[in-house]
Write a structure and sequence with these properties.
single chain; alpha+beta; Alpha-Beta Plaits; five-stranded antiparallel β-sheet; 14 helices; globular; NagB/RpiA_transferase-like; Methenyltetrahydrofolate synthase domain-containing protein; RNA-binding; RNA binding; FTHF_cligase-like_sf
């Protein structure tokens, strides 16, 4: 009858009480570091899965530092998830030219990840050959329990959605022997990531796990808009999948849809549609310099409160209609859209700075036509009544 949390607490308590826990302490609520982690990490070099791999994704946890170092020393491409997935999915560790062993050691640390990494966007065409994750507990069958926040599971699901991993991409975890425990199968969910190899200071365990790994993001189980706000890149992945006609309805949207389909709600919606002012977001042709907007009231124009958002890195093949569709999807529809397709950019006018900043946050990580768009407040805001916006440098 033990829960996942019971298993975590038991492992954390034992590591601390037995003197096996290592910096950072205490290990509770972390992927725990342990004495002997370097030895466990070094054994990865004996695995064919490691030696064959060109591109390796390794979590940023302290006990996996030795794996990150081994990957860099073997001149493999090393990808590390961005912290809490706030700014994207991966950072690629790029050591300086002619890096010494000591510099590579620094690159493998959390500080090195900050200093020697560059972001990899959704359009980065990552092809991950090996995935290394941290665990709090794992069974010899390959069933894994993390620290409870779900980031490793989400990262894997996102890699599936991006096409970065295949069904046969090996997954490895590094733990102390005491973290290898029996785990009841009923504790596992569809989104839980399983592992193919377990490396400890004394053993290499091939799990031969038969339980399928996540097949992608399970949108109907996702914790709705709260999760999309916490992990902005999910918005872009969701939009991509929606364009392929995949059902991306979120958990809280399912209940909202059920309530919205009652006769009273449908009648209310029909009345609202009939009375709503028609948007004038228009039909400027791709490549033309044109302004498309809802009509702005003279009071708003004169007040000088309009704040403009710059959208850059728009690919040549993208039409203004695709951008407008994305803006509606991410609840970031502007008062006015100034489309400059030939210059691969657009400017969006919002009623005030707070609304503009909210739009920037919502659109962060948005990808159209294979490019991750550059979205930020325009550097040169317009004066009162001014129509043109200076180029974003």
């Amino acid at each position: 009858g033990a829960s996942k949390w019971d298993v975590r607490e038991k492992v954390w308590d034992y590591l601390e009480a037995s003197g096996l826990a290592d910096f950072p302490r205490p290990v509770h609520r972390r992927i725990p570091n342990f004495k002997g982690s370097r030895q466990a990490c070094c054994s990865i070099k004996e695995l064919d899965a490691f030696n064959r791999a060109n591109e390796i994704k390794v979590d940023p946890d302290k006990p996996l530092e030795g794996v990150r170092l081994a990957a860099l020393q073997a001149r493999k491409t090393l990808l590390v998830p961005t912290p809490r997935l706030r700014t994207g999915l991966f950072n690629k560790i790029v050591p300086p030219s002619g890096a010494t062993k000591e510099i590579l050691r620094i690159c493998a640390t959390s500080q090195g990840i900050k200093e020697y990494s560059v972001p990899v966007g959704l359009d980065g065409k990552a092809r991950v050959d090996l995935v290394v994750v941290g665990s709090v507990a794992v069974s010899e069958k390959g069933w894994r329990i993390g620290k409870g926040e779900g980031y490793a599971d989400m990262e894997y699901a996102m890699m599936v959605s991006m096409g970065a991993v295949q069904a046969d991409t090996p997954v490895i975890t590094i733990v102390h022997d005491c973290q290898v425990v029996d785990i009841a199968e009923e504790l596992l969910d569809d989104h839980d990531l399983t592992v193919d190899y377990i490396l400890t200071p004394t053993r290499t365990i091939k799990t031969n796990c038969k339980r399928p790994k996540p097949q992608g993001i399970i949108w109907h189980k996702a914790n709705g808009y709260e999760m999309l706000e916490k992990i902005p890149i999910l918005k872009s992945l969701r939009y991509r999948e929606q364009q392929t006609s995949k059902d991306v309805t979120l958990q809280d949207e399912h209940s909202a849809l059920a309530n919205a389909n009652t006769p009273a709600a449908l009648n209310e919606k029909a009345m609202a549609e009939n009375t709503r002012p028609q948007a004038a977001m228009g039909s400027a042709q791709r490549g033309q310099h044109g302004v498309e907007s809802d009509s702005l009231s003279p009071r708003l124009e004169a007040s000088g409160t309009i704040t403009t958002v710059y959208v850059g890195n728009i690919p040549p093949g993208v039409r203004v209609s695709e951008l407008k569709c994305a803006l509606r999807e991410f609840h970031a529809t502007p008062l006015r859209l100034n489309w400059q397709g030939a210059q691969h950019r657009a400017f969006l006018d919002y009623k005030d700075k707070a609304t503009a900043e909210s739009a920037v946050s919502s659109l962060k990580g948005l990808s159209l036509g294979g490019n991750t768009l550059r979205v930020e407040l325009a550097k040169n805001q317009r004066n009162k009544g001014q129509v043109e916006i200076n180029s974003q440098k």
